[in-house]
Every structure is written in C-alpha cells, then in structure tokens.
Amino acid sequence: MPQSVYIHIPFCTNKCFYCDFNSFVTQNPQLVWDYLEALKQEMKLTFANRTMQPIKTIFVGGGTPTFLDLEQMRSFLETVQHFLGSHLAPDLEFTMEANPGTTDVEKLRLMRELGVNRLSFGVQSFDNALLKRLGRIHDTDDVYRSVENARAAGFENISIDLMFGLPDQTMEIFRQTLDKAFALGTTHFSAYSLKVEENTLFHTLYQKDQLPLPSEETELAMYLLLIEEMEKHGYHQYEISNFAKPGCESKHNKTYWLNNEYDGLGAGAHGYVKGRRHVNAGPLPIYLQMCKEGLPRVDEFEVPREDAMEEQMILGLRLSEGVDLARFANRFGSDAKEVFGDVIREEIDKGMLEEVDGFLRLTRKGLPLGNEVFARFLR
User: Fold this and answer.
1) Which keywords describe this protein according to UniProt (predicted)?
2) Superfamily of segment(s) 4-257
3) d(Cα 297, Cα 273) in Å, to the nearest integer?
C-alpha cells in the first residue's frame, strides 16, 4: 500500500500566464467549502476500509493551497489529521505549496501546529518586471516577508521554485535571481525551464510570435550556470531540476522518481496503487458531484509490465544516483540490461549514460540532454 499521499487544492487568486495546472480562480467562499467537503468524502472512501502502511510523505499542491483562509485551512488540515493522523510515520515529511503574498504568520502558525513541516514557495524569479510578465501577484518584497514569516512560525525546511528561459530573461537577470535566492538560505530549490503549454496565455502569445524567449543556447547556458552556482553554494543536485542541502531532498518527489505507489486525492489528481493508475475528474462541478456518489474516478487502469519497466528507467534516470539495477531486477524479475540492452549500450558508447556501483545514470554530458536519452527507452 502507498506510503505517500498527494492532495490537490485547485484554487488560485489569479491564473499565471504559463500555467496549465488544474486550477480555478474564484471569489466564492462557498465553492471552497463545498470542495473541502467533497475532499473529506473522497478521503473517507479511500482510507476507510484499508490496511494502512505508515504514511511517510504528504504533499499538498495546487492551485495555491495557501489560498485557503484561516478557517478553511484549519478545517482542511483537521480532516487530514482525522483520516491519516494515527498512521503518520515519526519522520513524516508534510509539504504544502505556498505563494508569497498568501501567507501571514497566523496562517503559517496554524499550518505548523496541524502537522505541515515543509513549505514550497512558488517564487519563480527575483526580478519584479519578470514576475509581472509571468502574471504572478507577488513581488520580491513579498518573498522576503513570506520566508521570514515562515521561519517565525517554526518552519526550517523551506523550498523555493525558480524558472529560467523566460521572456526577455537575460543571463545577467538570471544570475541576479540566483544571488538573491541564495541569500535567503533556504534548504531546497526546484528550478525549471519554461515550457509553453497549450491553453495558456503564453501559448497564444507564442503562436502570434509575441513571446520573446531566449535562444536554446542561452537556455542551456542558464541551466549550466544553475548547476554550477548550486554546487558552489552547497546544494547537491539530486535530480535533473532539484537541488538540496544534505538531508533536505524532497522525499515525496522521490516517491515519483522511484516509481513507487502513492494516493492522489482532489480534482484532477492522479494516483498509483497496487500497480494501477487512477485519474480523478478535473472540472470542479463534476468532481463535486462524483464525490457525492462515490469515488471521483474518471479513469483507472492496470499499468502493463512493459510500461512499468519503461517508467522505472525514465523516472529513475532523472535522479543523479540513477536507476538501481538490482532494485529493477527485483521488481520485474528481469535484468534492465537484457530488457533495454541495445539502448543502454549505445547511450553508454555515446557518453550519455554510465554504470557506477550498480546504478545506471546520466553522465555530466547527458544531463542537459536527458529528454533525448529518456525517449530512447520508449517503445
């Protein structure tokens, strides 16, 4: 049974211009309460008659989970404690995503009291003009204030999300963002290049040739600068886009990269339980209605063995340690080098992959070209 739980809170104060996540802007507090009630029903049906394993990680994502006001936050976290409280592992990692500007000290103290012990702030940039360009509602002052408030409320494990390859972002602007980010002294960073997704304002602008993105060469240079600066400041790159101080890696996200099972709760959430993946209804009216009648599943399917093996390789190669070959053989009863022999040999010969101490991993050369290597493992 899964030892990790993902919970989706889909509400936002506004829609960022690059965002294609399942999120909704609302000024209607009753809709939020209705959603929390539906979530409670889903938790009840999911966990009621199950033999539970100790829960090692909970991750609340969105949307903007800290969109919830104080009473909504209390109600939500008390629901989590009600269904999972007696099954929490002593070393539980309980992460909540937060947006600077939606976290005051009172709300943060409540979150800390009710079990949240790790925060992930969606900062994206320390350049105010760029933040406006992205449709973010915060500025850099909000970031400093939010991190200060979080520490005052007792949070020590704090992560920051950054983005690069943004419209009109130069190497110098990105370097300044990194300098300001390091000055905060947080324990973890996630840093992603911008992907222009369909059904976003950025996609519309891109199609009209009105989105001045940096060249691929500049984007690669930003990524290499990121890796260099993170190492210099004592952040170990444990995954393609993630960097941590020793012992502060995201245990929850490693659940995904190790291709382990997890429960997914909330509108549009995905889960992976007993070798089966499930997908919840995304649109709020459908999710709310389905929760009144049972589980809000719109799809559920067994993952074929071949697909599971591919996923194990592609997800595992995202980690700096790579794929544990003994674990692969133990899980599937087959040797990865037999299943993917030609691909592995060719990528090793090209200098993209290497085998070290029983792990198959990307080389320094292969790291920026990870997606091309991953594609080789797809049938």
Assistant:
1) 4Fe-4S, Chaperone, Cytoplasm, Heme, Iron, Iron-sulfur, Metal-binding, S-adenosyl-L-methionine
2) Aldolase class I (3.20.20.70)
3) 13
- SS3 category, 233: coil
pLDDT tens-place string over residues 241-300: 999 999 999 999 999 999 999 999 999 999 999 999 999 999 999 999 999 999 999 999
The DSSP secondary structure of 1-35, one letter per residue, reads --SEEEEEE-EESS--TT--SS-EE---HHHHHHH
Could you tell me where the DSSP H helices lie in 51-153? 70-84, 105-113, 128-134, 140-152
- pLDDT at residue 82, as a whole number: 96
Closest of 102, 63, 114 to residue 269, by C-alpha = 63
| C-alpha distance across the termini of the chain, in Å | 29
Residues 6+ apart with CB under 8 A from 85: 115
Sort residue 351 into left (φ over 0), alpha (ψ -120 to 50) or beta. Answer: left
Q: Distance (Å, rounded) from C-alpha 379 to C-alpha 369? A: 19
Interatomic CA distance for residues 359 and 362, integer angstroms: 10
The CATH class of the 305-375 domain is: mainly alpha
Query: What is the domain partition of the chain in residue ranges?
Result: 4-257, 305-375
Task: Give, in order, the Cα–Cα distances in Å from 180 to each of 127, 140, 173, 177.
Answer: 10, 9, 11, 5
